[in-house]
Amino acid sequence: MEMEGSHQMFCDMESLLACVGSQCIFCTGKELANISHLSKKHLKDAVYFNINNEEKFVVACFCKDSKWTSRSHYHCPHCKFRAFTRSAVFKKHLKSKHGIQSHMRREKASMIYKKVENSTGESKDEQMGVLKELQSWEGDEDFEWEPPSEAEMKVIQARRERQDKISKLMGDYLLKGYKMLGDCCDVCGTILLQDRQQKKYCVSCQELDSDIDKDNPALNAQAALSQVRERQLAAQSPAPSQTPELNGGPSNGQPSVSVPQPRPEHCEGAAAGGRALLPPPAVPPPPAAPSTTALAPTRPAVCPQNPALRPVLQEAEEAVLTKLRWATTQLQGAASLEASIQLCSLITSCASSLRSLKELSQ
Amino acid sequence: MCSFFCPFMSHGSVVGVLEAVILRSFGPEGGQVLFTRDTGQAMLSRSGTHILRALHLEHPLARMVVECVWKHSTVTGDGSKTFILLLASLLRKIHTTASREPHVSHSYNSLEAAEAATARHLADKLLAFALKELDDLIAMEVAPHGRCVSWEDFTAEMHSPANHYVQKLLASFFHMRLGYVHCAFISELTCELLNHWKCIDNLPYFALQFLKDNFPAIHTPVSGFPITSSRLIEGQVIHRDFATPYPQTDHQPIKAVVFTGYLQPRLLNTGDVLEVGCGGTEERSIVDFSAWTERSLQCLIANLQSLGVSVLLSVVKQSAAVLALATQAEMCFVDCVSEDELSLFAQLSGATPISDCWRIEPEHIAELTFCRPILLGPHRYENMPFFSLTCKATHLHAKNYLGTIHTSHLQTLVADVFIIRVKVKPYSLIICGSGEGQTDQYACAFQDAIRMLFTTWEPIPATGTTAAKRTVQSDKRTSSYTHVLTDSSTCTSSNLNPLHKCVLQPGCIMPAGGTFEFLLHHALLKLSHSCSASNDTNIGVPVSRLLASALLSVPKQIYSHSPGQFLQTRTRHNAIFTQDMGLESVSCKYELLLAVLQCVTSLLRVDTILRTHTALHTQSLADTSWESTEDEAEN
């Protein structure tokens, strides 16, 4: 039995998860092979059997090898990967031809399927959660815990720091005479405080930046920049890039996948990448918002002396003006302090970008 | 909108908040918290228990933790801030381990449930490990680096080495609690007090236990004076003034009796029915009745006078007739004496309080050397010492102590205590402070110091089964134990010498400043390495490693201002003893660890919190009429 691509038999989750990648090997078309896809499409209908006291399974496949690509099929590992389209037929074949008793685990897979469906976004943490769920479901305790990647570490570190900050603030308030209530905030889940005037107060909502707002491009210029950069990269390279993850925390990439192009982890990195395209003396970045000035350089940056640049500059001006208008309207309706500060800095940098663009066109 | 409750994360965040509260007061560099009330009262305190109890906490987990801290500090007197630090660090480590490896044997609905179950499991394992193995580990690996000071060596001689150690231990305790300015003075005063009370019994820690139990009666707080005015005075101080004018008597010994009831029968209480003039030929009225009671009182007083009693102490407030008669008979009368003072009096004098005033036996009469009023600050008290004469020595009532003696010692001790008669010269402690709050703080510090000393010198009962169990387990090393909890214990016990009975000696002290934590950390790591080397099929993370890493949070915080020193101390643990950061007690640390682990276990057992609109009555738990619990909807 040669193990290759979709024609293989898996003995544990690890081997299946090795198939996580940008292109699903079980599917004919272009499909991103992340864990939820694998579990929803292929693992859910896997057929399990015991060989030599080891449990193995074959997943439902949609590959080109069989004449049915729109229906799932199974490749029998003992018959040179002959395809069977119906699970009942396949199981009967295993039993009669090879004497192997097989079964399916539809119920548990649907549980996972539902869980994946219900999750708000496919952040790394959620995928890790699904991973662990799969692992525990399999009862596979040999799965080695992998140390978190650098990106994950940053997430964990950021979360821990935020939690420490919240604890410290709450401690200070307690010492000032606030009361710690037994309730949690509905929005963020932090414990609520109550002051002498019986007013409830949530430390993280009202004082700290929200975790999610940092990545919401509508509120944060850095997140907007990162989104723009990603789209640009996606447009440039032929290979499909990862879908930008905007919600659920500043997650970047997946645990065991090799990303074709490096994702910008922080907006500084994106800004640096953006700035590197442009010759240095073109745009002096204002110190207040170094990242947002990169908005201008991310536009196609060719040598400014080229007269063909004029329509491009006009385009750039228009884009910046649009952004300025948008920021102004947002500022009028901004509720939180941080958002207002961000929007103001965006406006400042838009203005300076416009100024430099006008200088360029003259 | 109902409030959701994520149980696992809440533990860490609640304890994290409490940690943030006490962190700034922790360690020798820690600051004090200023408490102010709306009434204008202000108080400075560094005591962890005070700070935590002063917070307004409605969150049930937070209250539970503060309750645990308080209970722990009533036993050992120290370590409340360390408790919170260790608790927070342990919860963090358990959470990290649980999220890393949700070791599950059943399937759970969600990841959080799996993590919570793993955490609970880890906590139980930790507690089991601590209860079984930790004291031996400490006795073998940590205690040899310290010093055992025996209580018998602690004598009145000021320059004995034992005295020096005890004083240093007290000085470091008071330094942490009250500040460095007066710690030397206060520790000297405490040593003096201990010296005076030491001769109470041959058994070493009985003196400490006696002091601990009777401390409220032994000390008198006086506010309005500087702390340096605190001193010891001879005799017991009764915190009440004379109700009758004090006649100056010169003859000794002064005889005193204690009354628990009313001398004159109360005439009319609510619900009383007085039948007057029934069954007799003469007409009786209420006036006759009260005249009769007064005559009986006169007889009583005459009886007392004939016995030579000149001081009367009473628990309740007696009537005016009694006071008048006593004044006439030139007896001092003190009423409304508190129960614990009277019990101390009874213990020291050997006289039982009289409940039936018509039967006064010689055993009810106490003998005093003097009895005089004393003016302490704005209050006038009574000062009554006892001095044991050669003809009548005082002895202690054993029954007060039976409840607290360890059962293994019970048989041998009961006989001894009744026979022994010792001479004791009681001394009272006057504690002065600038304000009421300050004085209260000093008094609490004294009391906690005595509790700490008691915990240090209290012998930990070495159960005879421990050694036997170890030999049995080492024989059964190769047998298959499938129970998870005993797996680790069979593993560890096989590494210990089965015949060597390790008991933590009382009176073991070692240098403070994180020494205990470092040594225990190394010992636990060594244990985990040898455990993993010998046992290949180790299930899960060895809990010893978890505990070892959690322990380091304490010295990290102590040396938070100088991380270089922390690293240095950690790597060169031979050089720990050159630093002079004071002394601390090993038993207190051990008790602290056990208390923290028990708190962790009970915290992690909480799955969810139900809010009720009305208070639950405890007896309704047995009834079917259970108060309905419902999730409280917010506004």
Provide keyphrases for this structure:
heterodimer, A: 362 residues, mainly alpha, three-stranded antiparallel beta sheet, 12 helices, B: 635 residues, alpha+beta, GroEL, four-stranded mixed beta sheet, 49% helix
Describe the structure.
With 362 residues, chain A is mainly alpha-helical. Chain A has twelve helices and eight strands. In chain A, the strands form three sheets. Chain A has a three-stranded antiparallel beta sheet, with helices on one face. Chain A has a three-stranded antiparallel beta sheet with strand order 6-7-8, with helices on one face. In chain A, strand 7 (191-194) and strand 8 (200-201) form a beta hairpin. Chain B has 635 residues and is of the alpha+beta class. Among the domains of chain B are: 7-100 and 120-148 and 507-605, GroEL-like equatorial domain (GROEL, domain 1, Orthogonal Bundle); 152-233 and 452-457, no CATH class; 236-266 and 289-379 and 414-424, GroEL (3-Layer(bba) Sandwich). Chain B is built from 21 helices and 16 strands. Chain B has helices at 7-23, 48-54, 60-76, 80-100, 111-142, 161-178, 183-198, 204-218, 286-307, 320-328, 339-349, 399-402, 407-419, 436-457, 465-475, 484-493, 515-534, 543-551, 553-558, 563-571, 586-604; strands spanning 33-36, 42-45, 56-57, 147-148, 219-223, 231-234, 236-238, 254-259, 309-314, 332-334, 366-368, 372-376, 379-384, 427-433, 508-511, 583-585. In chain B, strand 8, helix 9 (286-307) and strand 9 (309-314) form a beta-alpha-beta unit. The longest helix of chain B has 32 residues, at 111-142. The model of chain B is unreliable at 1-5, 386-422, 464-500, 536-540 and 620-635 (pLDDT under 50). The A-B interface holds A 108, 129, 132-133, 136-137, 141, 145, 163-164, 166-168, 170-172, 174-175, 177-184, 186, 189-191, 194 and B 1, 3-6, 9-10, 12-14, 16-21, 23, 33, 55-60, 62, 100-104, 107-108, 111, 114, 609, 611, 634. Strand 6 (179-184) of chain A pairs parallel with strand 3 (56-57) of chain B. Chain B: This is Bardet-Biedl syndrome 10 protein homolog. Chain B: It comes from Acanthochromis polyacanthus.
